[in-house]
Amino acid sequence: MNSKSSIFRLRAEKGFYETAFLLMLPIMLQNLISHALSLCDTMMVGALGEEYLASMTVANTPFYVLSIMLFGVQAGACVLTAQYHGKGDKGTICRVLGTGLYAGLLCSILFSGIIAIFPEQIMGLLTNNADLVPLAARYGRIIGIAHVLSCVSGIYFAIWRSMEKPQLGAYILGISALLNIFFNWVLIFGKLGMPALGIEGAAIATTLSRVFEIIAVIVHAKKNKTFRIDAKLLLHPGKSVLRDFFRYAMPVIISETFWSLGTTLYTVVMGYMQGSTAILAASTLASNVERIVAIAMSAAANAGAVLIGKAIGERGKESAFRTAISMTKLSMLLGIINLFVLIGIRYTVAETILYPLMKLSPDAVWIANFMIVTLGCIAPFHAVNTMGIGGILRGGGDGKVGMYFDVLPTWLYALPAAAIAALVFESGIVWMYLLKTSGSLFKTFFVLWRIRSGKWIHDVTDKA
Fold it and tell me: How many CA atoms lie within 13 A of 3 on its CB side?
């Protein structure tokens, strides 16, 4: 790239940010719906008591690993779809969809099946709090079905998002979220003549909403005229697409899997700390708040991957490089905004609405406040890393390098340091959480260096 020396002085092409925001908005809506639904589940289950909220956190921990693995499958499909979309090759996109469905369903069925057969044994590995294990097992046995169903709809929405049509996922997930909230109200608390099922009702409600998503996807696939699915290509993707899919998807899947395993182990560490019920409840709330605030940041990364993939397929490396610099600037701005929003929430709605509504203990309130402020301080670095690894490097087919940047700081530094501080030195949640989040600082340096090099740009459709 002949402009590397002036990387942060490059100007975006006219109309670039307008295009980016138009692509981001439906993705933001989709993410907002998803995270708001998660927060709604948290608040409704939290109304049953702090132990129920902590139990849901334990039960969702292994499924978080699955959801991240499925995100890796989606990301791999997106890399190929965006570039083939730039070339107008819908037949190959259909093959990519089939490959993604095979990979996603294999992961989700195996994962959910094992937890359904051995729920108490698995939950017992995640916490030594005997009061939480039975509740977590009851929730985990049911929620696995929802994850199998969401695998299908998630990959379908990802394919459409990579073809610059993110509205589909936003519309269907919006209706699904409303249904989920309604079913939560009915089944958790026993309304409209139904029995009060408590935490199991929350799992059933989520599963029913996922059934709706599958029905909507089937109807849309048959009725839309923009991208008609060829059953032969879907069911028989071919060796070439399969090879390319795993070439570009596997680094992302490995990266996301090890990253999520690291996150899971952080939860396990918290589950073994003194006062684990308050810590887990506070962590659940703080994480949900941060995810909602960060919807623009994650949407920007998704949009960046699509725009970069399309730029490579349509116009080549120079255009992709300029797109990357523009999206990096945008991510920095979004990270700073997230910092101020999270600090604002801690001193306003958290104290006056969220904590009283969820009946958190004084210890849990203090921990949640600390976690929200810490997440705010790290937000600018997290934003650059999310865009760099999840948007720019993946969109450019450089997922293997992104995998190293994502995994190594966690496993070589942050996770062992946090675990030793908490379990060996018993230093408490403050030091444990500070060490956990500090890994983002190291990632940022390497991410910016890689973007500047321009070596991340690869045409994945070039078979020469």
Answer: 17
Amino acid 95: pLDDT: 92
Indicate the pLDDT class of residue 463, thresholds 50, 70 and 90: low
Let me know: does 151 contact 212? Beta carbons within 8 Å.
Answer: no
Range 164-188 average pLDDT: 89
The amino acid at residue 135 is: L
Mean pLDDT of 371-394: 92
Find, among 206, 216, 421, 396, the residue nearest to 313 by Cα: 396
Q: Contact, 143 vs 200, CB < 8 A?
A: no
Contact present, 188 and 197 (Cβ < 8 Å): yes
What local confidence, expressed as pLDDT, does residue 7 receive? Answer: 46
| Model confidence band, residue 228 (pLDDT cutoffs 50, 70, 90) | confident
Token pair of 324 as six digits: 């990357």
Q: How is residue 381 written in tokens?
A: 């670095």
CB 33 within 8 A of CB 174: yes
Query: DSSP assignment of 267-307, as one string?
Result: HHHHHTSTTHHHHHHHHHHHHHHHHHHTHHHHHHHHHHHHH
Spatial contact of 451 and 392, defined as CB atoms under 8 Å apart: yes
Contact 335, 26 (CB under 8 A): no
Q: How far apart are CA 26 and CA 203, in angstroms?
A: 27
